[in-house]
Amino acid sequence: MNIRRSVAALSLCAALGAAAAPAAVADDGPAGRAKGLYGAKDPKFDGVWRQSLALLAQDAVGVTPAKSAIDWLAGQSCADGGFAAYRADTSKACDPKKGEFTDATAAAVQALAAVGGRSGTVEKGIGWLKRHQNEDGGWGMNPGGPSDANSTAAAVGAFAATGQDPAKVTSAQGKGGKTPYDALLGLQLDCSAKAAERGAFAYTAAKGKPVANELATASAALAARGKGFVFETVGKDSGAGPEPLRCAGGKGGAGSPEDAAEAALAHLSRVMSDSGTHLKSAMPGAKDQPDFGGTADAVIALAAGEHSAAAGKPLQWLQSKDSGAAAWAEGDPGALAKLVLAAHAAGANPRDFGGADLVQRLNATGPKPEAAAPGAESDGSGKSEKKDDGGGVGGVWWTVGVCAVAGMGIGFLLSGRKRRQL
Question: Residue 201 CA to chain centroid, in angstroms?
C-alpha cells in the first residue's frame, strides 16, 4: 500500500511510537512471536489490527482460531472498552486521549463478535465507539479527531457486526443527531468535481478541499451500504456494473447512501481499468508499483456491491503469479488475511490462489488453530477447512478498514489512507 503523504500521518506514527513499549515475547510457535499473536514482526504499530484481520479471515473460511489468539486480542482491550494499536503491558492503563484508536477498536469488535464468546468485551467496545462519535456523525482516528472515511467505515462495520443498524446510530454531540452516513456522504466528491474524480471519497475534509482517495473510497463504498467485515448479499449481479453519479449541468451528487456506494464503485472500476485492472501505489518514486492491499479492498467492495463481474478482473490479477501478490503477503498475517478475505468475498478459493494456499500460510503465522468446520478438507497443517465450491458472490462478505502501520516506517495497513491529500 502507499506511504501516507501528510503531516497528520507522521504525527500519528510519532504518537504511536511514544505510547507503545517494546513487544513482549513468549514462546507460542516461531521464535519471536508473542504468545497468541499472529506474525513475528514487532506489533508496536499494528498488533490489534493484524490480529483482528487474521481472526476474521480464519473464521470466514471455517477455521476455528486458537484460544490463545482470541485471548490475546480480548486482553488488549482498555478499561474503557477502547483498543490501542498494541499494549505490551496490559497491566498499565491506556491513555484515553491519544492512546486509543477508532480503527483498532472497531476491528477488534468485529473480530471478537465473529469468533464469539467475548460479549462483554464486544459490548464495551461498542460503548466506546458510541461515546466518541463526532457531531457530524462520523469518527476520527483518535477520539475527538476530525471524521475520516476509513475510521467511520470501520465503526459502521462494528455496529453492523453486532446487529445494530448504523443508520440509527446518532451522535449525542450537538443537536443535529447526525448518523455515520451523514459524515460519509459529506466526504464524497460530487458533480462539481472533475469528471475523473466524481463519486470518489476523500479521506477527510478537515484540511481544505476534499481530494479523491481510492482507499477511502473502497472503505466508504462498503460502509455506505451498512456493511462491515462480514455480511450476506441479498441479490445477484445484474452484470451492468456500478452506476456512476448522474450529473446534470455539473451539479448534484448522490441522493442516498446506496447511490453513493454505487458511484464510489464506479470510480474504483474506472481507476483500475485505466491502470490495468489494479490500483497503483502513490509511493514516491514508485508510480507504477501496484497497490496489492488497496486492490484487495476494491475487490471486496465491488463484490459486496454485488458486482462480481467488475470484481473478477482485479481478483484474477491478484491471483496471477505475475502480479506478485502472494509473494508480497508471504509471512505477513495482515496481508495474507486481506487476500483470503478478497478471494472469499468474490467467490474464489483462497486455498488455491494462483497456486498458493493462503489459508495454510495464514495459519502458519500464528498459534495452531483449534478446529475446522464440518465437511472440510485438509489444509496441509494438521487441520481442515471448509470446501469452497466457488459458488459466486453469495454468503459471507468481508472488508478491511485500513488503519495500522508496521515495521520501521508506515506500513501497508494504514499507509494509503491520506494518499494524495497533499
Answer: 16
